[in-house]
Design a protein that fits this description.
Catalyzes an early step in the biosynthesis of tetrapyrroles. Binds two molecules of 5-aminolevulinate per subunit, each at a distinct site, and catalyzes their condensation to form porphobilinogen. This is Delta-aminolevulinic acid dehydratase. InterPro entries: ALAD, ALAD_AS, Aldolase_TIM. Belongs to the ALAD family. Pathway: Porphyrin-containing compound metabolism; protoporphyrin-IX biosynthesis; coproporphyrinogen-III from 5-aminolevulinate: step 1/4. With 335 residues, the chain is of the alpha/beta class. The protein has one domain: Alpha-Beta Barrel (TIM Barrel). It has eleven helices and ten strands. Strands 1-4-5-6-7-8-9-10 form an eight-stranded parallel β-barrel, surrounded by nine helices. Helix 2 runs parallel beside helix 3 and helix 3 packs parallel to helix 4. The chain is globular, with a radius of gyration of 22 Å. It binds ligand PBG.
Length: 335
């Protein structure tokens, strides 16, 4: 056989042609299996005490630490676009070993909750991070024992009080993200004991000790040295993620969350198949930063990557997605 005179290979024409359904944009759109809807997107927002101007977060281009005022503009926009909700994080001016700013009714996060609920409480689900890492000077998600370990049970009693402070501020749903054993049960019973039966719990159930939280630590001015491996899960464990989700439901979680999202699509799917409550996933700071950095270099089609990212998290089984792209994605999805 030579290149000039190839022997024609016998071609058996395919009987089944999946490409037929990909022929036109209209047909592709018609047979698309699923798509995220803006109502399923939740925008995480950072509000920093004492700021007079929004402050860009270097490692998350396009995301800022808000002032109390700029945060209200951001939530208005989120409401106009029909997002599902917002998740609020507070960055206090002063941190201490016990994270006492978290309990202070005049603390940055509690004030922000009241502001946001006042502004858009009738249109969005207002959620707040329930964790101590933004408030502690050592940066851990709980209080420490004298020898420097994270004290699970003493942390639980702080979480119980923190939940009450947030409920009192008017939050719709608290998001315990500290991975302490028993946190959902303690928070549920503390809320119920004071009549806050309607305040929900979005439990960060399967939260991994992930490298993809890197940029977030700048966003909350974290002072953490070391890691969170004694409380956040080993990234290689999927059964354990399902176990944590089931436990949280038993303890009273209304939604369970898997976090991060992209490296854990299998865990999202497994949790979705194992539970009967809505499943959320957190498209975290490092996932955001990777796409933004590649796009800034011209290495990736940014908008397509955003929609593919969120679409794949949804396809894996997430009913609700927390994403720094929530506003922009809502625009793209309704364009
Ligand atoms: C803990 C918390 C973290 C994130 C959300 N809640 C950081 C951590 O556990 O280290 C990370 C979110 C992100 O990376 O986008 N309060």
């Amino acid at each position: 056989m030579t290149a000039e005179h190839p022997i024609p290979a016998p071609v058996v024409p395919p009987v089944v042609r999946p490409r037929r359904l990909r022929t036109t944009p209209a047909l592709r759109r018609m047979v698309r299996e699923q798509q995220v809807h803006p109502r399923q997107l939740v925008l995480p927002l950072f509000v920093r005490e004492g700021l007079t101007e929004p402050q860009p977060i270097r490692s998350m281009p396009g995301v800022v630490q808000h002032t109390r005022y700029s945060m209200l503009e951001a939530v208005e926009e989120a409401a106009e676009l029909g997002l599902g909700g917002v998740m609020l994080f507070g960055v206090p001016e002063e941190k201490d070993a016990e994270g006492s700013g978290a309990l202070d009714p005049a603390g940055v996060l509690n004030l922000a909750i009241t502001d946001v609920v006042g502004e858009v409480g009738d249109q969005l689900t207002v959620m707040s991070d329930l964790c101590l890492d933004e408030f502690t000077d050592h940066g851990h998600c709980g209080v420490l024992t004298p020898d420097g370990r994270v004290d699970n049970d003493r942390t639980l009693s702080v979480y119980a009080q923190m939940a009450l402070a947030q409920a009192h501020a008017g939050v719709d749903m608290v998001g315990p993200s500290g991975m302490m054993d028993g946190q959902v049960r303690v928070i549920r019973s503390s809320l119920d004991a004071l009549g806050h039966h309607d305040v929900g719990i979005l439990a960060y159930s399967a939260k991994y000790a992930s490298a993809f939280f890197g940029p977030f630590r700048e966003a909350v001015d974290s002072s953490l040295t070391g890691d969170r491996k004694t409380y956040q899960q080993d990234p290689m464990n999927a059964h354990e993620g399902v176990r944590e989700a089931l436990l949280d439901i038993e303890e009273g979680a209304d939604l369970v969350m898997v976090k991060p999202a992209l490296s854990y699509l299998d865990v999202i799917r497994r949790v979705r198949d194992a539970v009967e409550v809505p499943v959320a996933a957190y498209n975290v700071s490092g996932e955001y930063a990777m796409v933004e950095a590649a796009a800034a270099n011209g290495w990736i089609d940014r908008e397509a990557a955003i929609l593919e990212t969120l679409g794949s998290i949804h396809r894996a089984g997430a009913d609700v997605i927390l994403s720094y792209w929530a506003v922009e994605a809502a625009r793209l999805l309704t364009a």
